[in-house]
Amino acid sequence: MEFLNTKNAPQAIGPYSQAIKHNGLLYSSGQIALDRHGQMCDDDIKLQTKQVLDNIKVILEDNECNIDDVIKTTIYLNDMKDFGVVNVIYADFFGDHKPVRSTVAVQTLPKNALIEIDIIAKASDYH
Q: Looking at residues 99-115, what average pLDDT do you find?
């Protein structure tokens, strides 16, 4: 098991890893709309969704993966009324690639984020 960390995405805000690579898979921790300096995005679902997806892209790329390697995503939404807006941005981000996905409504997220996404992607354990 390899614990992964990139300085180009926000650092973990608790006792957990940014991502882990194990048995050919990369698992990310949930990403919220923090920039790489740890500053939260504006309170806007569009901006937060784009920031979260940018964070995921950086974690993937800095660990020799890309968005086409994503197998599964889980989206946590503070308010299910944002589902349609998130879907449009998510579809644009992934293009023709369509990983399996779960979307869950939650009462609150860390730092009062509006959205959190984690992923599982295929990755090689060999460098």
A: 95
